[in-house]
Each structure stands twice: as C-alpha cells, then as structure tokens.
From TrEMBL:
Protein known as: Membrane protein
Pfam families: DUF2306 (PF10067)
Keywords: Membrane, Transmembrane, Transmembrane helix
Keyword Transmembrane helix attributed: yes
Transmembrane segments: 12-34, 68-87, 99-117, 123-145, 157-180
Length: 185
C-alpha cells in the first residue's frame, strides 16, 4: 500500500461502524448485567423510552457547563475530520494537515472529558478509560506516522476513531444524558 492510497473504502468504513455499534451494545448489556439486569430487561428498557428524533435543542448545550461545551465542540470536530480522513487519500498534504487538526480535537475531547463527572458525581466513570487510552494512543499514532510505519499508524488512529468517537460517543446518547435530551428527549 502506497502512502497516497485509499486504504479504507466505503464498505470497510460501514463494517467498522457496524462493529463499533455491536461493541457498544455489548458494553450496554454488560453494564446492565453488572447492575443485576438481564439482557431482555436492558434492551426492553431502551425500547420503551420512546425518544423522538428532532432538531437538536441547542439551548440545553448552551446552558451546560463550559467543559461539556468544549467537549462537544471537540468531539464534533474530531468526528467530522475523522470521517474525511478515513475516506480520503492517505499521505497527502491535506491528510497530514487534517490529521494534526484531528489529533488536537481528540486531545481536547479527552482532556475536557476528565473534567466531566455527571455519570459519577465527584469521581470518574468507566467512560474516562476512553479518555486515558486516547491520551496514550494519540502520541503512539503520531510517532508511528513520523517513523513511516503506515500500518501501525492506520490501526492506531482507526482504533481511536472507533473506540474514542463511535463507541464512547454512543454512550453519550443513552437515555437521561445530555445528548439524548438534545436529540431524542
């Protein structure tokens, strides 16, 4: 694979998203099991919530604490740039420039999440593990690119995209959370 090849096609991108969603469902079921609920009760509880998709209620975000606003802005930026990077040509100047912007957005999202404690007031939740991993893996992915280890760079950054954005992001849309209220509540 050359440095400027299209290393991920639309079919692989869709498969990657599907795997991310499957892992997310598995984590939701595991969380329910840890609280003593069976899979039927967890999925049934989600199905009966009857959220209605609508235009985002941005007033909720505007009234949220600044660390949540920074976090949502960084995640949204990283998600948009990440999709472009995943589907675009690799090794180009545009890829490198957008890649640095993506790294900054991901680092901002990870650091800002360390100041959000709504899931576990006064402490960290398991979602903060994604932030920790992101802060460790980001430099690894950059270092791999700097050393021209294209395979390791691609795997690291793809893993961060799936784990740090898709899987962790899916948890933001669970009932009762701010993103659920903004879009489905």
């Amino acid at each position: 694979m050359s440095d400027t090849s299209l290393s991920i096609g639309p079919a692989r991108f869709i498969r990657m998203v599907a795997i991310g969603l499957a892992v997310t469902v598995g984590l939701i079921l595991a969380t329910g099991a840890a609280q003593g609920h069976g899979p039927g009760a967890v999925l049934g509880g989600l199905a009966h919530l009857k959220g209605h998709l609508h235009a985002p209620h941005l007033g909720l975000l505007a009234s949220a604490p600044i660390q949540i606003q920074v976090h949502v802005a960084a995640v949204t930026t990283a998600l948009a740039i990440g999709v472009v990077l995943m589907l675009g040509l690799k090794g180009t100047t545009v890829h490198r420039t957008l890649g640095w912007a993506w790294v900054i957005a991901m680092a901002t999202a990870a650091i800002s999440s360390l100041f959000i404690h709504r899931s576990n007031p006064g402490g960290y939740s398991f979602l903060h593990l994604f932030a920790g991993w992101t802060l460790i893996a980001l430099p690894m992915g950059v270092f791999a690119a700097r050393k021209h280890n294209v395979r390791l760079h691609g795997r690291t950054m793809t893993g961060l995209f799936v784990g740090g954005l898709l899987i962790a992001g899916a948890f933001a849309f669970l009932p009762g959370r701010l993103m659920w209220q903004m879009v489905l509540g």
